[in-house]
Write a structure and sequence with these properties.
It is built from 14 helices and 10 strands. The protein is of the alpha/beta class and 390 residues long. It binds guanosine-5'-diphosphate (GDP). Guanosine-5'-diphosphate binds next to helix 1, helix 6 and helix 8.
Length: 390
């Protein structure tokens, strides 16, 4: 699927940069155009893969290139001030060249949190192509302000896009020792999951292998639907690529009449990968049966993509999600040594993390109000003392 991707703010820019690397090294070709937008100059300078001409510093008259200090209202102002430059930069690619727009942002900060819904609204007004969000949720321990920013931004982002795909930083704790190592690991995971999804169906990467049942961009667009939240599950397994036979022969079993893999092992591997993808760590943990639409993609070497395995995994997913709309397909990649399953659950409603974030937002608002009141009282007391000393 061909995308024009916009990374807004620090997290948005870094994840866009990582997706570009994924796209280039794997020759998948799903990034048709990439633009990084930020109010902090140093964050833009730190990017590696986004071309210099596609980095845009916004809100200079408001924050002089120093960022918003985690204030989404300032982020919104910065984006509004330069909205024409932003749409011009995104519009450098012809809409006919892309299937959709994708706006990436950390929702807990300032520029991405406040600015992304404004950009989404404007793209929606100008273009007929769908506009999707990829929102990064702060982890719970980042504190009230981040969670409050994210809760508010998410509401607006959902209203201004066709679907917001969410990734919860808190559900992706890694072994990285420092915060930046942690983010590097997390951004790798984000790139693998969303990169695999968006590259599905891109013919260049398939290298002449025709998928049995291609997942094209319209299948992805229909699954993401119009309105709501999407989460993604991913699981993969290394396969033995030794052509020498022996263990491999026993592993692979015999081919069916289409020359496709139909052994019990390849079939079982697919069904177990799809179960792991759905019941393991989703990018946003939720109850799978609260989804309204689901999509399943299995990628890997063509001889490992057992039709029977994909069909029975789809049946299992239908029961597990209780969805009538479950799409499924394969994505043959000749040079891969892994079989991977991506499960997309769209229109999900039972999401404990969002409820928790809303509660933290209410607490944070109450805390801010208490602080405002005590500051006000302190001011009044100061006024009284000043009166008395006159
Ligand atoms: P902005 O530049 O004002 O839009 O703010 P940020 O993009 O820094 O947003 C802050 C949020 O993004 C926090 O919740 C961070 O946890 C998260 N964040 C910052 N950098 C990264 C990153 O590289 N990867 C991920 N996954 N999250 C990040």
């Amino acid at each position: 699927m061909k995308l024009a991707i916009v990374g807004v703010g620090q997290a948005g820019g870094k994840i866009l940069d990582r997706l570009l690397e994924y796209d280039t090294t794997r020759n998948t070709g799903f990034v048709e155009h990439a633009v990084a937008i930020n109010s902090a100059k140093t964050d833009l300078t730190g990017l590696t893969n986004v071309p210099q001409s596609d980095r845009l510093l916004v809100g200079q008259s408001i924050v002089s290139g120093h960022g918003t200090g985690t204030d989404p209202e300032i982020g919104e102002q910065c984006v509004r001030e330069d909205i024409h430059e932003i749409t011009d930069a995104i519009g450098r690619v012809a809409a006919s060249e892309i299937d959709a727009f994708l706006i990436i942002a950390g929702l807990g900060g300032g520029t991405g949190s406040g600015g992304s819904p404004i950009i989404a609204d404007r793209l929606g007004e100008i273009y007929a192509e769908p506009v999707y969000g990829l929102g990064i949720l702060p982890s719970t321990d980042e504190g009230g302000i981040y969670n409050r920013n994210a809760a508010n931004s998410l509401q607006r982002f959902v209203r201004s896009t066709q679907s917001v795909l969410l990734f919860d930083n808190g559900a992706a704790k890694t072994g990285g020792e420092t915060l930046s190592e942690g983010y590097r690991d997390i951004n790798d995971r984000i790139a693998t999951r969303f990169g695999t999804l968006f590259s599905a169906g891109e013919i260049e990467a398939m290298d002449g292998n025709i998928a049995e049942s291609v997942v094209d961009s319209s299948e992805i667009i229909n699954t993401l639907g119009d309105g709501g939240i999407t989460t993604i599950g991913y699981a993969s397994e290394q396969i033995d690529t030794d052509e020498g036979g022996g263990l491999l022969d026993r592993f692979r079993g015999s081919k069916d009449s289409d020359g496709l893999q139909s052994s019990g092992d390849a079939t079982n591997r697919i069904t177990s990968l799809v179960r792991r993808a759905t019941l393991g760590k989703l990018t946003l943990p939720c109850e799978p049966d609260s989804a309204t639409r689901a999509l399943l993609i299995v990628s890997g070497p063509p001889d490992q993509l057992s039709r029977k395995g994909i069909d029975s995994a789809r049946d299992w997913l239908e029961t597990e999600t209780d969805c009538r709309e479950v799409r499924a397909g394969d994505y043959p990649l000749a040079n891969e040594d892994r079989v991977a399953a991506i499960v997309v659950l769209s229109g999900v409603t039972d999401v404990p993390r969002i409820e928790e974030m809303q509660e933290l937002a209410v607490e944070s608002d109450a805390e801010i109000q208490r602080e405002d009141e005590s500051e006000f009282e302190a001011l009044l007391e100061y006024g009284d003392e000043a009166d008395r000393s006159e």
